[in-house]
Amino acid sequence: MPTFVSHGIVAIVASEVFSLSKKPKFWVLSLLCSVLPDVDVILLYLGVPYGHVFGHRGFTHSILFVFLVALLIVIFGFRETKRLSKNWWALLAYFFTLGLSHIILDAMTVGGLGVGFFIPFDSGRYLFPFRPIRASPFRLMYFFSSEGKRILVSEAFWIWIPLALTMVVVKFVRLRGKKK
């Protein structure tokens, strides 16, 4: 899995690019949505095996879970938004896509058993053929090793730099739009 930092950076960039709301609640819920699939790490420490349907990258990394989280965030986090309105659907699509970004990035790492995209309908774990991102360890101290530095460099190259370039392009386009 990429680090929680990378998942958080995706949320920050997405919330800026899509600008669906300027409220702090929007930013907080974006961050929560982007890292929530990794709540399953807690279950590892409670004895749930990695390969179990509720193990790491299992149900909480499924498309169904991501959709349910997005739906709950929109229903309870944006009560002021009229249900089924254009803005309501935009919020749902935004949070669903943000959750999908987490599981897609995880499927692009070189480590692990894969991602349970289709749980509970299919218990298989899948990885993409193109997996350039080094897998992040569960222990924080690991990042202070030489391998930890390689992980961060991998994430910088494959996640942070492309996101920074995305932000630059979006800012440039918006500035040009204001000048017209």
What is the element layout, followed by pairings?
Layout: H1 4-18, H2 24-35, H3 40-45, H4 63-77, H5 86-106, H6 146-179
Walk me through this protein's architecture:
There is one protein chain. The protein has 180 residues and is an all-alpha fold. The protein has helices at residues 4-18, 24-35, 40-45, 63-77, 86-106, 146-179. Helix 1 packs across helix 2 and helix 1 runs parallel beside helix 6 (146-179). The protein is globular, with a radius of gyration of 17 Å. The relative contact order is 0.15.
- Class from secondary-structure proportions: mainly alpha
Helix share of residues? 55-70%
Radius of gyration: 17 Å
SSE order: HHHHHH
Shape label: globular
| DSSP strand tally | 0
* Major beta sheet summary: none
User: Which parts are unreliable, with pLDDT below 50 for 5 consecutive residues or more?
Assistant: none
Beta-strand percentage range: under 5%
**Tally of alpha and pi helices:** 6
Euclidean distance between termini CA atoms: 43 Å
Mean pLDDT: 90
Task: For the structure shown, list the relevant keywords.
180 residues, 6 helices
Short description:
The protein is an all-alpha fold and 180 residues long. 57% of the residues lie in helices and 0% in strands.
